Inverse folding.
């Protein structure tokens, strides 16, 4: 055994037998043994909290514990320390049960001598070390199995997402392409028959279809960059309040007259660093959704709330709302609530928003009630220059 000195915790209420064991161990020549003697199980548990031992010698007849019931608290307190049971009876069934419950060996006191005791202590320590090493190997293998299982599940989910992605692309590209083909065909074949207003309508339909396809491609590319790790957080000085005002003005130009965008800010904002590109993706998408899913119009509120170490943004609409069963998965790719009806969308926008918020070191949450409206809350940490 590689140990040159073995530290033993002896749990024995009989002083005479404890002294005998000490004398037996003093005569050892190949190894040094230091023995700490306690009379009760409670004292032993206290010592295990305070000190480290290489092995425990346990008498099965203690004032505060009898028989094998002493094993469980000791093993729970110090699972890596081997235990050798000491008893006055030569009981094979008790010996087998002691080993089954976690003891490394079983010794009858009247049969003890120096050679038997030292050999039992040495073998118990070696066996326990081997068991601990085997346990660590098993735990490592179990972790590896869990990791590989998770990878397989991830790959399965990825394949499913790819299949859904292809299906979504074929569907969402077909509609604008059909619009473009139909409008261009009518313009080509009936160019002399169509009025100026009709031609303008078809050109607007073509432009809208192209914009939809471009937006879809942008979302797909951004998700791809985030997944590959090429989308980075690149903070620069930015007047945040002015940025929010400008974003609202841009969206108000494209929103219908039924919608009103209102921006308000609370708190003093010192100079800080922000990634303007990520912010534009986050709030451009959330505000666009607030408009799109409020078909009856109403007010869309955009609030900036400055706190000590963070900045919170609230985007609140008076739209159709999100059913409760969809709120936990609304940030997953290709997820769209059941009540969107004919409102167009790819199911990628909020997934893209979530990735951008994570890159900015922030968090996003949603509060919604069907038929009442939805509020998205984005909290981002202040990044000082």
């Amino acid at each position: 055994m590689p140990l040159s000195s073995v530290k033993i915790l002896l749990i024995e209420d009989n002083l005479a037998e404890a002294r005998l064991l000490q004398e037996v161990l003093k005569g050892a020549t190949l190894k040094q043994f230091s023995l700490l003697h306690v009379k009760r199980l409670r004292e032993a548990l206290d010592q295990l909290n305070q000190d480290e031992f290489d092995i425990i010698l346990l008498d099965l007849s203690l004032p505060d514990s009898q028989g094998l019931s002493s094993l469980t608290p000791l093993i729970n307190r110090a699972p890596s320390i081997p235990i050798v049971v000491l008893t006055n009876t030569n009981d094979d069934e008790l010996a087998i049960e002691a080993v089954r419950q976690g003891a490394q060996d079983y010794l009858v006191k009247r049969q003890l001598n120096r050679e038997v005791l030292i050999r039992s202590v040495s073998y118990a320590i070696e066996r326990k070390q081997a068991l601990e090493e085997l346990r660590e190997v098993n735990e490592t293998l179990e972790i590896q199995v869990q990791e590989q299982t998770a990878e397989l599940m991830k790959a399965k989910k990825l394949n499913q997402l790819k299949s859904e992605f292809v299906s979504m692309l074929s569907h969402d590209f077909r509609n604008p392409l059909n619009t473009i083909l139909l409008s261009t065909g009518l313009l080509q074949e009936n160019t002399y028959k169509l009025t100026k207003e009709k031609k303008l309508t078809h050109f607007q339909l073509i432009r809208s279809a192209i914009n939809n396809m471009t937006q879809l491609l942008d979302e797909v590319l951004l998700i791809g960059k985030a997944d590959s790790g090429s989308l980075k957080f690149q903070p620069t000085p930015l007047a945040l309040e002015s940025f929010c005002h400008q974003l609202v003005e841009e969206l108000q130009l494209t929103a219908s007259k039924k919608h009103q965008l209102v921006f308000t800010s609370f708190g003093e904002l010192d100079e800080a660093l922000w990634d303007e590109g990520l912010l534009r993706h986050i709030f451009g998408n959330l505000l666009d959704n607030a408009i799109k899913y409020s078909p009856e119009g109403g007010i869309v509120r955009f609030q900036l709330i400055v706190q000590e170490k963070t900045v919170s943004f609230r985007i609140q609409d008076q739209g159709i709302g999100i059913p409760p069963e969809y709120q936990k998965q609304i940030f997953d790719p290709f997820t769209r609530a059941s009540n969107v009806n004919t409102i167009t969308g790819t199911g990628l926008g909020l997934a893209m928003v979530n990735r951008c918020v994570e890159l900015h070191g922030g968090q996003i949450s949603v509060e919604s009630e069907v038929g009442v409206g939805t509020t998205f809350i984005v909290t981002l940490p202040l990044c000082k220059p």
Observations:
- The longest strand covers residues 298-306.
